[in-house]
Amino acid sequence: MLEINTYAATSATGDLVPTRITRRDVGPHDVLIDIKFSGICHSDIHTVRGEWGDQQYPLVPGHEIAGIVTEVGSDVSRYTVGDRVGVGCMVNSCRECVNCLAGEEQYCLAGNIGTYGAKDVDGTITQGGYATHVVVNEDFIVRIPEGLELDVAAPLLCAGVTTYSPLNHWNAGPGKKVAVIGLGGLGHMAVKIAHAMGAEVTVLSRSLKKQEDGLKLGADHYFATENPETFEALAGSFNLIINTVSASIDISAFLQLLSLDGALVNVGAPAEPLPVNAFALITGRRSFAGSMIGGIRETQEMLDFCAEHKIGAEIEVISAEDINKAYERVLASDVHYRFVIDTSTLV
């Protein structure tokens, strides 16, 4: 067993603190990763604070992991020592259900095993990437292309694939008009990726405060949703809307912005329900859908796409001692646009 340094939550209400944990021995199909950077996702905050259900503590969050392979198991065939790799939101699944066999492990019918806070196959609770090392089965690791620096690649393991997957599935591209609700950690990646796919991109944000940023990131248009005239001017405009906001919004109002057969896809995960007026759907044959991260195959596809188009996350690298301050800044929407922990500071 390898004993390592981490930052962990010890309760739903307290700060994260330095904590020592052990990782399992490297098994035949396992890879030991020296973590270099770990992104901070809003879902980390939801989870450690018990907003998505009770947790067992101490809990080490973090599912945007980028690092270097330092050891491989005897039967590992895909990776060797020195490889640049990443780990996202899951570290295992049943591998047998129809969804797993289709390469959509995130929708495993038995429930995928999350990178942290989940019951692993050996009965232990998984611990995440706010740590110096992690041991993961090779099937749930992806290769980070040489064209991507590890720090800007780390958030792609969640924010990148969470937005790439619905844009890919709903065929964003030339001739398509795509709107992105919210310009935060998820939203800024949705704008970059949709723009690279060739779509006409519009940001729908509460105010115009981030308009300059949005246009620099690749948006063609930017509108403030606090202005009621926005909903009148844009009615029936979009083929696809990606909602990245993890809070309650008026879904029915945004559905009216879709063209015939358009889809509004929710990738944010608010704790409260999102009511929908049926007439907002049936009057335009519109769809209200959801999308959750991506499978391992699609995550690799996303990384390769981002490397080809020179897309990385907009990040602020922090030391481990600043994690709690970073959480408060995330909640205050004071981040441009993803915090990334330099795990060399986990001492």
Automatic annotation (TrEMBL):
<comment type="similarity">
    <text>Belongs to the zinc-containing alcohol dehydrogenase family.</text>
</comment>
<feature type="domain" description="Enoyl reductase (ER)">
    <location>
        <begin position="11"/>
        <end position="341"/>
    </location>
</feature>
<dbReference type="InterPro" id="IPR002328">
    <property type="entry name" value="ADH_Zn_CS"/>
</dbReference>
<keyword id="KW-0560">Oxidoreductase</keyword>
<dbReference type="InterPro" id="IPR011032">
    <property type="entry name" value="GroES-like_sf"/>
</dbReference>
<dbReference type="Pfam" id="PF08240">
    <property type="entry name" value="ADH_N"/>
</dbReference>
<dbReference type="InterPro" id="IPR013149">
    <property type="entry name" value="ADH-like_C"/>
</dbReference>
<dbReference type="Pfam" id="PF00107">
    <property type="entry name" value="ADH_zinc_N"/>
</dbReference>
<dbReference type="InterPro" id="IPR047109">
    <property type="entry name" value="CAD-like"/>
</dbReference>
<dbReference type="InterPro" id="IPR020843">
    <property type="entry name" value="ER"/>
</dbReference>
<protein>
    <recommendedName>
        <fullName>alcohol dehydrogenase (NADP(+))</fullName>
        <ecNumber>1.1.1.2</ecNumber>
    </recommendedName>
</protein>
<keyword id="KW-0479">Metal-binding</keyword>
<keyword id="KW-0862">Zinc</keyword>
<dbReference type="InterPro" id="IPR013154">
    <property type="entry name" value="ADH-like_N"/>
</dbReference>
<dbReference type="InterPro" id="IPR036291">
    <property type="entry name" value="NAD(P)-bd_dom_sf"/>
</dbReference>
